[in-house]
Amino acid sequence: MTENAEKKQISQSYWALVWWRFRRNRMAIIGGIIVLTFYVVCVFLAEFFAPYRMATESKFVEAPPQWPRFRDAEGTWHLRPFVYGYEEQIDTATRKRSFVPDPTKRYPIRFFAPGDSYKLFGLIEWDRHLFGVHPDQEDAHIYLLGTDRLGRDQLSRIIFGGRISLSIGLAGVALTMFFGATLGAISGYQGGPTDMFVQRAGEFMSAFPDIPLFMALAAIIPDDWSTLLIYFGLTIVLAFVRWPGLARQVRGLVLSLREREYVLAAQSFGANDRRIVFRHLIPGTLSHIIVIITLNLPGMILAEVALSWLGLGIRPPMVSWGVLLQEGGSVRALRFTPWLLFPILFVMTAVMAFNLLGDGLRDAADPYSGR
Amino acid sequence: MAEEKQTDYTPPAEDILLDVKGLRKWFPITAGLLRRVVGHVKAVDDISFFVREGETLGLVGESGCGKTTAGRTIIRLYEPTGGAVYFKTRTQTSDGSIKWVNLLDFDKKQMFPIRQEIAMIFQDPVGSLNPRMTVFDIVAEPMAIHGKGSGAEAEETVSRLLERVGLRPEQMRRYPHEFSGGQRQRIGIARALSLNPRLIICDEPVSALDVSIQAQTLNLLQDLQADFNLAYVFVAHDLSVVQHISDRVAVMYVGKIAEMTYSDELYNNPMHPYTEALMSSVPKPDPKYHSERIVMQGDVADPSNPPPGCYFHPRCQYAKEVCSQETPEWRELRPDHFVACHRAEELQLRGV
Amino acid sequence: MTEKTLLVEIKDLKVEFDVRDGIVKAVDGATFEINRGQTLGVIGESGCGKSMTARAIMNMVPKPGKVVSGEVLYHRCIKSNGSEVTDIVNTVELDPDGDLIRRIRGGEIGMIFQEPMSSLTPVYTSGSHINEALFLHRLVPVRTVGGQMAAEIQKYRHVTKEEAHEIAVDMLRRVGIPKPEQRVKSYPHQLSGGQRQRVMIAIALSCQPVMLIADEPTTALDVSIEAQILDIMRELQETVDMAILFITHNLGVVAEMAEEICVMYMGKIVERAPVVELFYEPQHPYARDLLKSIPHVGRKSRERLASIKGMVPDPFNLPSGCLFHPRCTEYMPGKCDRIEPGWTQVAENHWASCLLYEDV
After folding, report:
1. A244, B45, B119, C144: which could join B197 in a potential S-S bond, CB 3.0 to 4.6 Å?
2. Which among B62, B212, B352 is the nearest to C222, CB-wise?
3. Taking residues A80-96, what's their average pLDDT?
4. % of residues, chain C, pLDDT over 90
5. Residues A253-289: b if buried by 16+ CB within 10 A, e if exposed
6. If pLDDT is split at 50, 70 and 90, which confidence band does A371 have?
7. Residues from chain C contacting residue A9 (CB–CB below 8 Å)
8. In sequence order, which ranges of chain C are alpha helices (DSSP H)?
9. 3-state secondary structure of C76
């Protein structure tokens, strides 16, 4: 390179180049932002974003969503958004109690409102929430997405549920990556009997029908375990079923990388197998692995949702998106309390966002020939 | 864990560094469900040559001749099928005195220290450097593997090496893709030099480079050889490059060496018909050069199914009956001039 | 044929690639002619633009490149009302997917490329990749060789299927493939690299083109096979009176094959001369240095090779004035870094682009 060009150019590592390419893909950035938002809101700062606690019951049972409004019944515009309170109605014929919006009760929405206290990150005591209604007002409440049959705020439960669903997805995928990538790399590098054994084991696992396998494994988790243990158990179950896929792909990558001359060069200097696998082969596959796990994450989330919906995964009182869907997924719910199906929207958005992100990463990390 | 085999070997001369005898590398061909071995690709089939300290031995031949495989088998990147590779090493004794060992007897652990003394340079400037590592990491890797120098010491050594090969030391934090092909080859050379080897196996080091860069790289290799008293086994398919850089040349064909001698001698007085035909086939960069070209008919022989007798006989214009029946012997017909041809004494072959 | 008739005239051809980091001038003002029956060699190293010139002639420049100016005037000889008429066609202006250029490609101007994928990416960029994904004229792995040949022949010559098949067998024989009647039924992967290249030549020649563009046709082949291929090309050229545009970086090959040679550097032609004059009296410093830097079989060995100092410049940071001046042994400060050299005649039929020969 000429002098000037050298001065101009800053050293670009592989990851810097990937980032540069990634940045140009708008959809991928959007996906990434959404994913990040989900994790920040649901996993890390759930207590802050959720107006209520996970299990706070109220008398407003099966109440419809309170939409934020700017314009009241008389037609006046307010700067601060507000929600209408509930009025209880009893259907004379069926004796069914239901709630309808009551324009006479107006609760202005306050931001950084005081509410239930909690410990941020489990350490810092705080009581502010992103939004809420003035606690002094009589019976003030804000259930943006309605309530369930125990009067619990859906939005809060969705947020807390997201904490479980999203983190299980992540943990499951991390475990899969650890198992699958290492096994795949070793299998691909060693070849021979090791390879055959690992591959057959993987194929055997993959050949099992997914759902029955999940169910069987999930059913093994004892009922009386604490919810936390169940959580971990479930993560392991998910990882256990998924590792062959990742292993196979990593093996394929390793098989091609193994023949690269830089691997040969390292061998010629006496590098041992461990060094080659971890220093040369796995870094070469890392970009692919990241793409694969990003695209696998939604599968994990959906698996958890499915399992929990079937009653085999997360069980109440712990809440996840699957649990919420189970509570909301009946014909009766569809008819009378359709807002209980909102979690579906969140699941779909998360899955789509992960897919966009993964596709973008894959395009950015494309065959890097190193020019 | 192989026990220390006593090597009964006396070198034919004082200054010999590497002596390959009867080296074989056969790749099995499997067929069927149970992967039965049905045949072999005899990539390297009984070759013998030696290299002296500080000299360059060229291994030249066309595709499938086994030259690359030979280079890699010597350094045990491929497991040999047979033969012996005697090497004069200093790593086996506590005081660094010389000991002759057979590399093919060594297991992986015993080979480990030897790898400081024999290094390798590869053909592909793109593929031979790990794109995820910085230049520093790449050049320092052999030292890291052998536990020689770390931190500031390593940095200093790498600086020195980069300068010696004509690169700027400040660039050691950069990545391979920021360099041109010729520069990448220099990085590979710097890496090979990092442990002060005595022998470097150069596997087609200039084939992937542009003509003008080839010249620079060849000059560099020659300078380094003079400075560090390096011996090279220079594997290439380009006859003119090989002749230029080698002291002695071995011409390979389908796993065997057809002829081996000093490079001037080879080009002026070849004794094997394949050598003669090969040199005649090379297009000369001289439009006034007119000579009757010897065109070899047919394709290069198949190493998994070579012709009987002398492998070259179907394409040889001097072939007689004996050539299709008996494999020719490897003989020293003139001082330091070896040939494997039945008719070598009688034929008067044309040089370049 | 002593009389020279123009076949293809290239005038001030410019091909540019618009990549993320800027514009790369792959070909920057190339001007030369090819006459009927003549072999013109184009030599240069990677990035000099020789391949792009060939593609531009066929209007096959891959995206994101395009021809930005210049002309390629192809003098077509067509039979009209019993007599022969020459129609001049500017190929770079034709619709790249149109009928006319399709008929010319393969039918009147044949092409052969280097066999495997080469690393001839002409530009050193820190951004995008220039993708030479031209799969025209590659052998399809799933059809027999004979089938593909016959299909090509039928495309350009009005013959029946059986006749096409016979021509295919005949062509295989002429390119030196033994037992052509059997070989015609084999699949591409059953042939060796040399045989495949011979098949490509056979296909290119079976349509009896007036010109053959050979872009590094023997670079990937063994020397012994290369010799055979070059012989075949020369032989066939004599029988059919075909012009050859021979593009290569191999000076030995071009010395054998070409009558005249153009030397290219960074998209420009720096010298043009008959082959003997170029090798024995090169005028441009780049050509001189290039010729001195190659090892010769038979020449005294163990001397240092004269090498060209420095490296090919960054295409986004081209030197001012003469593009070669930073590496030139005859560099004249004040001149070479300020003025771009023109095209000067230094001897009969011998031109160079260098300020040494210009009055400035």
Report:
1. B119
2. B62
3. 79
4. 15
5. bbbebbebbbbbbbbbbbbeeebbbebbbbbbbbbbb
6. very low
7. 126
8. 50-57, 99-107, 145-156, 161-174, 180-183, 193-206, 223-240, 251-257, 275-280, 285-292
9. strand
**Contact across the interface for C311 and A1, Cβ inside 8 Å:** yes
* Two structure tokens written together for B171: 């660039």
CA distance B298 to chain C (A): 8
Main-chain dihedrals φ then ψ at residue C135, nearest 5 degrees: -100, 15
Residue A237 parent element (H or E): helix A227-258
**Residue A329's CB: how many other CB atoms inside 10 A?**
15
Picking from C195, C249, C252, the nearest residue to B284 by CB comes out as C252
User: Is the minimum CB–CB distance between B190 and chain A shorter than 8 Å?
Assistant: no
Q: Does B277 touch chain C (CB under 8 A)?
A: yes
Chain A hits for C129, CB-CB cut-off 8 Å, are: 369, 371
pLDDT at residue C302, as a whole number: 65
Residue whose structure tokens are 């350490």: A123
- Subunit contact A5:C326, Cβ cutoff 8 A: no
Q: Tell me what the pLDDT averaged over chain C comes to.
A: 80
Q: Is the pTM of this model over 0.90?
A: no
CA distance A333 to A312: 21
Q: CB contact, 8 Å: A5 with chain C?
A: yes
Averaged pLDDT for residues C301-316: 78
Give me the pLDDT at residue C246, please. 93
Tell me the sheet residues that pair with A282.
none
For every residue of C192-213, DSSP letters joined together read -HHHHHHHHHHHHHHT--SEEE
Q: Which residues contact B38 (CB under 8 A, 6 or more apart)?
A: B29, B30, B31, B32
pLDDT tens profile B258-276: 999 998 899 889 999 999 9
Task: Considering only the beta carbons, identify the residue of A12, A262, A284 that sits closest to B129.
Answer: A262
Closest among B82, B73, B12, B79 to B338, alpha carbons compared: B12
Of A1, A12, A371, the CB nearest to C314: A1
The span from the CA of B284 to the CA of C330, in Å, is: 27
Reply yes or no: is the peptide bond before residue A81 cis, omega within 30 of 0. no
What mean pLDDT comes out for the span A110-127? 79
Q: How many CB atoms lie within 10 A of CB B263?
A: 23
Tally of CB atoms within 10 A around B15? 12
Q: A370, A323, A371: which is closest to A343 by C-alpha?
A: A323
Burial class (CB in 10 A: 0-12, 13-18, 19+), B111: middle
Cβ atoms of B283 and C253 within 8 Å: the answer is yes
Q: Is the pLDDT of residue A5 over 60?
A: no
Give the DSSP per-residue string, B207-256.
TTS-HHHHHHHHHHHHHHHHHHT-EEEEEES-HHHHHHH-SEEEEEETTE
Confidence band, pLDDT 50/70/90 cuts, at residue C360: low
Quick one: tokens of B7?
Answer: 């090597």
Residue of A nearest to B173 (CA): A11
- pLDDT above 80 for B54: yes
The ipTM of this complex is 0.86
By the 8 A CB rule, do C27 and C13 touch?
yes
In whole angstroms, what is the distance from residue C16 CA to residue C28 CA? 8
Contact C326 A4 (CB under 8 A): no
Residue carrying structure tokens 């990448």: B184
Angle (CA) A238 A239 A240, round 5°: 90
Quick: pLDDT tens for C106-139: 778 888 877 543 333 333 332 222 223 333 446 6
